[in-house]
Amino acid sequence: MENTKIAVIGLGYVGLPLARLFATKYPVIGFDINESRIAELQNGHDSTLEVEDDVLRSVLKDNPKIDTGLYCSNEIEHIADCTCYIVTVPTPVDKTNRPVLVPLFKASETVGKVLKKGDIVVFESTVYPGVTEDECVPVLEKVSGLKFNTDFFVGYSPERINPGDKKHTVEKILKVTSGSTPEVGKAVDKLYASVIAAGTHLAPTIKVAEAAKVIENSQRDINIAFVNELAKIFNLMDINTSDVLAAASTKWNFLPFKPGLVGGHCIGVDPYYLAQKAQEYGYHPEIILAGRRMNDTMGKYVASEVVKLMINKDIKVKNSNILVLGITFKENCPDVRNTKAVDVITNLMEFGANVTIHDPWAAKEEVKHEYGLDLSDDLPVNNYDAIVLTVAHDKFINLDLKGMLKNHGVIYDVKGILPENVDARL
């Protein structure tokens, strides 16, 4: 792809690291409709903490007319001369767990306004098989007035970013690629291979690449659902689940999954995309949705287990003070999207408890906007009837939890990272 100029549409947890990487070799325009996001990035700071400030500043440019490097903008004219558009916007589900493709359609409309003959549009957003060609391409055609696979082409290369993971960064994760024609597939593959050190895998079709992505997280979801069910069973039998898993893991082919709260923008969402498409074909998936049901109930289960422990210690639940440690969806990461820690919190509140939430990684404004909940940095001693660790942040390990508890208080360790002197762990 000679004279390649790349536009990355969406500068969140996925788009920014990718834009930064491509900017080491190509001219890249990072586009996002969020003005404050663009402002912070052009000032050399990434609030998601996916790209370190010095790394971001090393590729930042102050002008869109660049030979290499990254310029971030919310002005559509700045992406008009690009030749390759990579769409990395989120694909959530609604309250009924139906796929929400609106951000993807809006991004397609934006690209369609500047699409030219010969351009390639690559989608990275997680979708069910068929979305790229059956849903996004018609939007591109309608807005641009161009003909698919004659005037412009598309590809699909699913994102595999693991938020907060500083080891498996984008260039170190093998990339699946695909194109709307064999030639375009090779071109897309060559483009990604030029910056992805881990290599690429060219899928034969776009639908294969879409399906591969959606089953990756569905498989993980099902495996976690299995150990969550085991945790419920072993808790009833008064058997330590962690000890059981440690023993079973001594077999070479045992998969080392752990129980926990399953949220986030991928694992807690992707199975619904596949299930939705399957149902359109007249097939009702059983295992996939059973896994989702299991994992979606874990917040309520944890809350009820905490309450049982309190009652067994003669602690009055109503108007009790409970500290919840962690509201992000995973450890050592500020991402609060679709976090299941909120389920624990809301269920404890329904029992009448006064819940204090502490998370040094989460942005207070974002948590308030998304969930209407307040975070606190004030953790007084001898104040709480129960402490629930929901997220395994490293910063929590050395906290003096016993000192914060009232006499005979309860400590419940969802993630199993605390010392053995806890009342219960999932």
Brief synopsis:
The chain has 426 residues and is of the alpha/beta class.
Structural description of this entry:
The protein is α/β, with parallel strands linked by helices and 426 residues long. The protein is 37% helix and 14% strand. The chain has helices spanning 15-22, 35-42, 53-59, 102-114, 131-144, 182-193, 206-236, 241-248, 270-280, 287-296, 298-312, 341-350, 364-371, 401-404; strands at residues 6-9, 27-31, 69-73, 84-87, 120-123, 153-156, 175-177, 200-202, 321-325, 354-358, 384-389, 405-413, 424-425. It has a six-stranded parallel beta sheet, sandwiched between helices. Helix 5 links the parallel strand 5 (120-123) and strand 6 (153-156). The longest helix is centred in the middle third of the chain and has 31 residues, at 206-236.
Topology:
Layout: E1 6-9, H1 15-22, E2 27-31, H2 35-42, H3 53-59, E3 69-73, E4 84-87, H4 102-114, E5 120-123, H5 131-144, E6 153-156, E7 175-177, H6 182-193, E8 200-202, H7 206-236, H8 241-248, H9 270-280, H10 287-296, H11 298-312, E9 321-325, H12 341-350, E10 354-358, H13 364-371, E11 384-389, H14 401-404, E12 405-413, E13 424-425
Parallel strand pairs: 1-2, 1-4, 2-3, 4-5, 5-6, 7-8, 9-10, 9-11, 11-12, 12-13
Helix pairs in contact: 4-5, 7-9, 7-10, 11-12
